[in-house]
Amino acid sequence: QVQLVESGGGLVQAGGSLRLSCVASGRTLSSYAMGWFRQGPGKEREFAAGISWSGGLTYYGDSVLGRFTISRDNAKDTVYLQMNSLKPEDTAVYYCAAYLKARRPFNSDYVPNDVSSYDYWGQGTQVTVSA
Q1: DSSP designation for 43
Q2: In this structure, are residues 74 and 83 in contact, taking their beta carbons and an 8 Å threshold?
Q3: How do the residues of the chain divide into helix, strand and coil, expressed in percent and rounded to 5?
Q4: Cα separations (Å) of 66 from 49, 59, 63, 83, 115?
Q5: Would you say 2 and 8 are in contact if contact means Cβ atoms under 8 Å apart?
Q6: Nearest-angstrom CA–CA distance, 127 and 109
Q7: Mean pLDDT taken over the chain
Q8: What is the pLDDT of residue 27?
């Protein structure tokens, strides 16, 4: 089992940047593909970005493509989400999530983009972008 703790959220003006971090404990992060999801007020939780266990493959939701960058440092058991050119519509609670790669032993680079596939979730960090 792994525990995930997000940090780095806050209030920022439109056009600004934030860097979110997600630190894992309990099990090495290299056992997991990782995803960042977000849930805005009155909205469903949506996929923002995902990264394979090695960091070699990354995926992004259409609404953040070109503005957000996901990365990871397995030696530090940490995943990052660099968010640039932030917009008010990016306001949401951001969650990191872990997908156990051993669930697909013949495709260890698989990165899900749906909420139901992930095994573990952090508690979330609030990002608020003012106009």
Answers
A1: S
A2: no
A3: 10, 50, 40
A4: 11, 11, 9, 10, 22
A5: no
A6: 29
A7: 96
A8: 86
Burial of 95 (0-12, 13-18, 19+ CB in 10 A): buried
CB atoms closer than 10 angstroms to residue 116: 5
In 3D space, the residue among 35, 6, 34 whose CA is nearest the CA of residue 21 turns out to be 6
CB atoms within 10 A of CB 105: 7
- What does the block give as tokens for 97? 């999530």
Residue 7 in tokens = 């940090």
How confident is the model at residue 111, as a pLDDT?
A: 96
- The total of other beta-carbon atoms located within 10 Å of residue 85's CB is 13
Q: How far apart are CA 29 and CA 95, in angstroms?
A: 16
pLDDT in tens, 101-121: 888 888 889 999 999 999 999
β-pairing, 32-39 vs 78-83, is unpaired
Q: For residue 74, give the H/E element and its range.
A: none
Would you state the pLDDT for residue 21?
98
pLDDT digits (tens, 9 = 90+) for 76-90: 999 999 999 999 999
